[in-house]
Amino acid sequence: MQAKPVTLKVLDIVSILLLAVSAYLALVFAPTELVMGDVQRVFYFHIGTAWTALIGFVLAAVFSVVYLITKDLKWDRLQVAAIEVSLVFFLITIVLGSIWARPAWNTWWTWDPRLTTAAVTELIYIAYFMLRQGIDDPDRRARFGAVYALVGGISAPITFFAIRLFRTIHPVVIGGSNAEAEGGFAMTADMRVAFFFALFAFTVIFIDLFWNRIRLGDLQNHVEQLKLKVTL
Amino acid sequence: MANKVNTVIDKTVKASIRPHVRERARPSASFAKAVSAVVWKDLQAEFRSRELFSAMLVFSLLIILIFNFALELDIKTRQSVTAGVLWATFAFAGTLGLNRSMAIEKDRGCLDGLLLAPVDRSAIYFGKVISNLAFMLIVEIIVLPVYSVLYNVNLFQPGLLLVILLGSIGYVSVGTLLAAMSVQTRTRDILLPILLFPVVIPVLLAAVKASSGFLDGATLADVQMPINLLIAYDIIFIALAFMVFDSVVEE
Amino acid sequence: MITVKKLVKRFGLKTVLRGVDFDVQPGEFVALLGPNGAGKTTFLRILASLSRPSLGEVSVAGYRLPNEAAAVRARLGVVSHLPLLYGDLSAEENLRFYGRMYGIVDLEPRITEVLEMVGLDNRRRDLVRTFSRGMQQRLAIGRAVLHDPDVMLFDEPYTGLDQDASSMLDEVLKTVAAKGRTVVMTSHDLARAEELATRFDILSRGVITATATHKQLKRTNLLTFYKEALVS
Q1: I need a labelling partner for C141 at 20 to 30 A (CA). Which of A167, B162, B205, C222 fits?
Q2: Is the pLDDT of residue B17 over 60?
Q3: Which residues contact A116 (CB under 8 A, 6 or more apart)?
Q4: Cα C45 from chain centre
Q5: 0.90 exceeded by the pTM?
Q6: Phi and psi of C81, rounded to 5°?
Q7: Chain B residues closer than 8 Å to A154 by CB
Q8: What average pLDDT does chain B have?
Q9: Which residue from B220, B216, B175 is spatially nearest to B193, judged by alpha carbons?
Q10: How confident is the model over C26-38, as pLDDT tens digits?
Q11: Is B202 on the interface with A (CB under 8 A)?
Q12: How far, in Å, CA of A126 to CA of C109, rounded?
């Protein structure tokens, strides 16, 4: 069994550091927003986790296609890792979004496109794992997982656009120098620093967690192989 | 004399060639024939037992009943939720039909029987989609007048019927694919709604929006967007299912 | 007619078939024997094109699996221990459905011919769910020979049949095999296998451990041969 590669160990430490720095930037460095107050600081992490969850989501769909073409179980392990990490990050996004929504719009939940699609995607992920739970054969499990992840991968964006047919109260932040957009706000230079740093930090954290999870899957697979040798 | 000998030799030679050694041209079912065979078989079997159909119908009526008591609506509010109640009913009752249709194939090993036929796997998919769609549409056609009578609202508008058709196609296309998967897992029936509902939300959204529009007297131009979404969804997912169905039924 | 070279079948990490070599000439009736779990059903499913080999070469009726599976299916008739019949349809409706799926021309006379062959002509309009297990099995054989296949695969056809039904099945099997077809049958019933087959192969723990023709068995009997093959 291989020991943790040095790069990964370094990445672990770097990720923790980046998280700490990002937290400092978000909570201390960035100026307090005029209208919403301190709760707006949640925004930096909220976008950070949302962005990375989205990466995971796209990766999962790509892995589906690659697996279905190559039938190599390695891609299945990659997909499980991507979806698991993405699931957790979407959850954080939703919780942070909720925390932000309460003081900002006086509600714990808003049925706007982004938040709702995140929730629907969570449900798709959970369904994905429940599907896999009910299958014993590893090849079938991988095939069905890939098919469902592909179906979900196409359906979720359509859901997003479908909800946009209705009005949204989600703040339009990017490109929103128009602070009149409900709940929107313009970003100052300092805020931009915190914002982009958070994006960067969370991307690194995502890669770190993703890599760790893949390694976990590989180790699990290795254990299964060893178990089989023993029982023979 | 030489002729006769030749004929005798000819006949002996021909008789000694055992049939299985000769290469015979094999008729194979065309795609369309296979699809129609599957559809016809499903309709025929269902017509005999009417299990699926009566279950879906009764379930639909019960759901409408439950909504009636659960929502306690006055006449005004009722108008605005009609589309939603209808589509919620169809979504729930639909899972019954999808589950049962696939379970029949799985239980007696008939899925193997279908897979043994020298036809493209997608023929099985399309056959199943068409028969599932037929069952769903029949149930919907019956639910509409019942709902109309119970709530004194006219549901027989061509626009609404169009939405119901497009929405059902989308629902059944994805549903058949997912049912083919769920029926092969341990958790079977309970898994289908869990898999299906999150991914079929665009259909529900667009269908309810368009239905409400038509019920409020909108023209086709007004509800163009949700209708387009339904059409796009239908096309995308039928194409996707067509491509991946093999992976779902083969080993 | 059937050529199998070094066939390996894995389910995830479990290997069920470990390099099977199997060669059947046209017209042979092979009884494939072996203990439960030896891989007989898995093997038959691969020959039937219902399952893909992990490694190795398989060709049936001159066509390679899995690439030319459709051509194989047109020449193959399969009877498993499940009836593969629709209970709510009548005997003739079942045959009509399968006939259409196989693209048989002149279907109606063929259906009558087959029903007479399996002794179910008088029950042709009765629903299959009213049939006894023995009758269902006979109809299943009828379904399997409908398209006049060159190769027939039987997986434990005698399972669940009483004496009478088994005798009737004997007759049908003899008729079916008499037309020069190639047959592979798995069975636990050694006595029946000895009576019907021209050759006996033993599959144990994923490989063929022994094979003998009827002539070669003259000295010993099948039971002894079977036991010896399992020990090795």
Answers
A1: C222
A2: no
A3: A159, A163
A4: 10
A5: no
A6: -75, -15
A7: 236-237, 240
A8: 84
A9: B175
A10: 888 898 888 887 7
A11: yes
A12: 54
